[in-house]
Amino acid sequence: MAKRNGGGPATAESMASKQRDISVSEFFLKNRHLLGFDSPRRALLTAVKEAVDNSLDACEEGGILPEIAVELEQTAETRFRVTITDNGPGIVKNQIPKIFAKLLYGSKFHRLRMSRGQQGIGISAAGMYGQLTTGAATRILSRIKGAQVAHAMSVQIDTRQNKPAILSDTEQDWLPTFLPVNAEGQPEGDPVVSRHGTSVSIEMEAAYQRGRQSVDEFVKQCAIVNPHLSLHYRMTLITKADPKAKADATPAAPATVCVTYHRAIKLMPKIPDEILPHPHGVELGMLMQMLKDTESRTVRSALSSDFSRVSAQTALDICERAGIEPKTNPTRIAHQQSEALYKAIQGTKLMRPPTDCLSPIGEAQILAGLQKELRADFFTAVTREPAVYRGNPFQIEIGLAYARPQENEGLGNEEPVRVMRFANRVPLLYQGGACAMTKAVVGVNWKSYGLAQPKDALPLGPVVMLVHMASVWVPFTSESKDAIAGYAEIIDELTLGLQECGRRLSVFLHKRHHELEAARKRSYIEMYIPHLALGLKDILQLSDKEEDKVVTDLKKMLEKTHLDV
Amino acid sequence: MSKSTKIPNAPEIISKKAAAQKIMAVAGEIHTDIVKKHRKPEMVFPIRSLQNVRFDVKRGHFEILGKTATRTLSYNTVKTFAQSMRLLATTKNDLLDKDDIAGKREVYYNSKSWGECRFDEQPESDTLLDDIEAMLAINREQLGYIPEERGGDVTGPLVVIDQDPGNGKDIRIDCTKLGTGAWSIPSRVEHLRFEAGKAKFILAIETASLFQRLVHHRYYEKAHCILISMSGVPTRACRRFIRRLADDQKLPVLAFTDGDPYGYCNIYRTLKVGSGQAAHINRFFCVPQAHYLGVTPQDIADYELEDATHPLEEADIKRAKDALKNDPFIQHHKEWQDALNHMLKLGVRVEQQAFAKHGLNFVLDTYLPDKLKKNKYLP
């Protein structure tokens, strides 16, 4: 689009003088909200999230039980140093700069496989955010299995060319080391030392605040949904030397938070399989790109070898339907033809994509995760069978805990239930209202399961609901990956899972209600029977023994007939 | 004392010992049910409400029907059951065995030492006391419970022969010689005897202030009547006293109340035929020979009281309609239905004191003599 200058009409030449590459940094700064860096508080969380996602993905791919340390250290009023250390397989030296200092570089975008990261923007965006706000470089330490030393690197992004710039590159004798702490935050047990792993450290403008959208909450939810993870969290604030603070009797908020989330199970999640894209899940642009990139020499073979669930015969059918000669070179398919091909694909009945490529958390694992972080009287979990939306396989899992309100912060009979949302095991803390998961919870009639529920709102009660969607491609509503889009198939699966948990909850609540009622009745009866006996004793001059017999006989009689209502 | 010959139609007089034995029998049955028969004990009560009475025309009072309620021990009744046993124990051990008396409010306070079994409000203990009275078929006065409220006041040409509570000697009370005061009817009246040769009738009055006016002007001398102040709905003792006096001295009884549904359906009806609440003992506590003198709805026009009335309140209207629909006594008497309908149509009520419109003593100089001369009363 031509922009008009102050004077007369612009010429092609004058416009050309203004047309240039937009640097990634400019793009980033203008679109930081899309990537989750719109506020200092949120930037802190996003940086932690991207780094932890990468660590977990790396550990799992390497078949290593993950041990992760998350450290936040306030370095100035509005600055934090974020350091995430893992015991993953490490990164080979020449990949380090690209992974951490080049946007849109990664292993995950070009494949269809369930993983936490998807686009290869995350960690390098965090590094760039740090670079833009503080000028500091991203520092990486990495040691691969069997290596004698670790590589230590400082990298920055050349924001004009989206290329990594290496500031320093040395070798260090470094081993990833993790320090477990007890419930009071004091060191406990021996440090855990790994022979391999990676540590990334970014200094950035940030703000720390407790609450539902804090890093504290994020790491806790990570621990719940990854029961095979051992996570060490340390957050240190600058203690201000405030002269008034001495006189003040009320102590300031703790300047340090130290928590170890212990591993609950030693079972690694199944490594998800990579699948070919299903034709029904492919957009027109993507289809054109794939035709261009294919190694096949005919449209027909491109269709059958680059997509899942397309046999040679089906490919032939599609070509016929699109009016395309099957032997046409796929790179030569014109725009109009590709549109016809796209329509033909959409109109062709195809087998659903394979669904065994997903790696759900599993019911036992969800229970283990909830049980270690919540004090509750009832836990249940449901892993639904895989389903498909727009050609993408996905799987819904629901966990539900009925907590003891007095033992869990923020939970109560009059409080809305707490919905913890996860996509491919990553906690989603923002945009809850816009997310299909929240909508599905609101859409279920919880009253029939024994929870109060205001109209068009979350039900009330000391309940935590864990909602997880596993998919080769999670349909986020934006690149900041906060909320899941409400495809009908997804909402349906969510609803069925929630209803199943609701039915189990209702059984529990019923049983509990009866038990409470029976206990109440028992104590009521036990309160008055002695008086009845005493009255009889006084009237009939019974002995103490006879009085006792009246009491015992009556208790037996009433409990037998009136307690199991 | 064999009362059936001496005092006809009197409540059965039961010795304290016999009453105590009756309590022990009830308790014994409950005890046997629990420890021997291993079944849930029960208590059976006659139902005390207008639903369980009929108007016995021959006897002239509400007679109880056979309906009973059974209270079986259960989770829901265990508290009442326990309270009943403790109340029975107190009744037997503290009142009957020790020949003592207690007021209803004292019963309520006494229960405060029973821990969680205590009565929270007095109506609870009052209801239970009524239940026990009905269950034992012994009126509570004989169990040692005395009413809190006063029985009523009497003056007029009457000598009451009472007994000294200490030595049992007769005490003669001449009700003409009480000056400006009156004699209070005691809570127990069975032992009283009467001499009332000069009296021609008994006049039972609703309000104490009108009673005072009649006493002040010694109306009873002029009219040769015994005056009784009921102060609202007559107490059991008051009803029983009037009944015994009227039976004994063969005197007609006239009632003079406010002209409103409460005066007709509660005060007069209860005086004459008893109440639903006390259905089980009405036959003693009623005055079937009573008639209604006024103030009738017709009197409003006859004595030009239209400008001395008050509009009927919602509660009055409800009471009148309720009586027309449910009260067996009103349903029996066409005259009363007409009177109530007349009042509903007028939409007003009239008080005894309204006659003061024509002068303070109009009521005794004109109204009462006039009514007595006409000798026409409501049944």
Give a quick set of tags describing it.
heterodimer; A: 565 residues; Heat Shock Protein 90; Helicase, Ruva Protein, domain 3; Ribosomal Protein S5, domain 2; 4 domains; eight-stranded mixed sheet; globular; B: alpha/beta; Arc Repressor Mutant, subunit A; Dna Topoisomerase Vi A Subunit, Chain: A, domain 2; six-stranded mixed sheet; three-stranded antiparallel sheet; 15 helices
Short description:
Chain A has 565 residues and is α+β, with helices and mostly antiparallel strands. Chain A is 37% helix and 19% strand.
Secondary-structure topology with pairs:
The complex is a heterodimer of chains A (565) and B (379).
Chain A (H helix, E strand, L loop, with lengths): L11 H7 L5 H7 L1 H4 L4 H22 L5 E10 L2 E8 L9 H6 L20 H13 L3 E6 L6 E9 L4 E10 L4 E2 L13 E2 L3 E9 L9 H11 L4 E7 L6 H5 L8 E6 L22 H10 L5 H8 L5 H11 L12 H13 L15 H11 L2 E8 L3 E3 L2 E12 L14 E6 L2 E3 L7 H8 L19 E9 L16 H53 L3 H19 L3
Chain B lengths: L2 H4 L9 H20 L6 E5 L6 E4 L4 E4 L3 E5 L5 H19 L5 E2 H7 L11 H15 L3 H4 L1 E2 L6 E3 L3 E5 L6 E5 L8 E2 L8 E3 L5 E5 L2 H9 L2 H5 L1 E5 L6 H14 L3 E4 L4 H13 L16 E5 L2 H6 L7 E2 L2 H13 L1 H5 L1 H13 L1 E2 L12 H13 L5
Parallel strand pairs in B: 5-6, 12-13, 12-14, 14-15
Antiparallel strand pairs in B: 1-4, 2-3, 7-10, 7-13, 8-9, 8-11, 16-17
Helix pairs in contact in B: 2-3, 4-5, 12-14
